[in-house]
Amino acid sequence: MWTEERLDTLLTNPSSALIEDMKKITGDIMILGAGGKMGPTLSLLAKRACESAGITKRIIAVSRFSDPIVKKLLSDHQIEMISADLLEPGAIASLPKVENIIYMAGKKFGTNGNEYQTWAMNATVPSHVMEHFKDSRIVVFSTGNIYPKVAIYSGGATEETHPEPVGEYAMSSLSRERIFEYGANTYGTKLAIYRLNYAVDLRYGVLYDIAENIMNDRPISLESPCFNCIWQGDANEVAIRLLLHADSSVFRLNVTGPETIGVKETALKLAKKLGKEVSFVGEESSTAYLNNASKMTELFGYPTVSINTLIDWQAEWILSGGRSLGKPTHFEERKGNF
């Protein structure tokens, strides 16, 4: 029922809105950090949108490309690749200058014990990128972890909520935003900040994490009782279309699904579909990391894949033996330890 090819096709089928917006985006597009969880399908989505629009652009994917599966996917679809370690001296300065940058590079997991590497990736690299691409439009990937935890019935933090990062990952992520903001204010760089939590691609995500715990008879923590998530195909479309909203005044956008989704309810649904029992640990808190996506839905419409469909797909993917990226979200983490 599910194959990698089918999943990647679903994730990279451009909507009519993206195709029309791609016609309005002038210049080529470079994706920095394109070898991560979202970058490969975002690169392919951009290329397919150009093809559907009947226009020609360079779609340039930049990464170390340590995963051969990612490298093959991009190569098979004739995506232009530049292999580079952005932490290496001179790597960023050697990149061709293009009009549009989608900045996805960053480090989260493995921060504890290697905090200096997280700060180098999340704070040092942006300063070099900002200097080299100061004349470009830039969409900067960030995270909802920069916000404080909010009441579970609040509707989530909005773009106007003052950041209160907890832990060095969240602090360094806010640092990344501030460095790019400095460039916007100093050079007039057109900038959009994209605050995500969480994308679902079936090979990883909150739903995968819950399902995997159920399959392995591990109890589900209820300490963070709810979450937001969004189909990765929709999240990638927003990232590309957001190039048209980049501005020197700095445009900020929460990117996630519109629903506040209960962990317990979701686990019970997944367990039933997986044919497994589920157990729970911990007391439900009155707060969680939640983002309000009303601004996103006003601009770009509601996500095309509902949470119920995502739950169905996730169970089917697991039961069909679908591959895992081995990159848990740690959505249940409340103290910023990654």
TrEMBL record:
Name the InterPro entries on file.
Epimerase_deHydtase, NAD(P)-bd_dom_sf
Q: Which residues form the signal peptide?
A: none
Gene3D superfamilies the record matches: NAD(P)-binding Rossmann-like Domain
All residue ranges annotated as the NAD-dependent epimerase/dehydratase domain in the record: 29-196
User: Which protein, by its recorded name, is this?
Assistant: NAD-dependent epimerase/dehydratase
